[in-house]
Amino acid sequence: MYTTELKQQLLSTAHGSIRHGLVHQRALPVIVENYPEPLRAMRAAFVTLHNRAGLRGCIGTTTAIAPLIVSVSDNAYAAAFRDPRFKPLAEPEFADIHLSLSILTPSEEIAFTSETDLLVQLRAGIDGLIIERHTRKATFLPSVWSSLRKPEDFLHQLKLKAGILPDQAPLRAWRYQTETIE
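Above: the chain's sequence. Below: its structure in token form.
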């Protein structure tokens, strides 16, 4: 969907926001009007950081709350410095970071009658999934399928992430797809 030039602008903005954050402790400010229309559109996005050891940060939203270029800048900064699972990124680590952007399609609710019914509707390697049970909610991007290949494992780990007990089924679920940019 995005041209090579647009992808490069998104990646440059994400890298620039992290670089800016190392110096100024805030995301790179972007002037939305300076970007092409596809980057000004309201889109949900995640930014994932990896280093040699594996995951180094991942932050995003499942709903479109800002123009894509703003989401990428803000989420890149947050993935580097605000992911609660990791210490803030330090300058020496920056050169070893591999950055990945996931641009989400709007999520669609999945109607299901049981957890088994939900599992048969999941498309491994294609669907990202959001689950909810009362106040507990979590998501896995489609890229998580690379390490959790079976739908049962994917859902089980997502329930753990959400704090939903293994014997409890989600009450609501949504699927989405992503375009990944690296």
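The chain has a mean pLDDT of 97.
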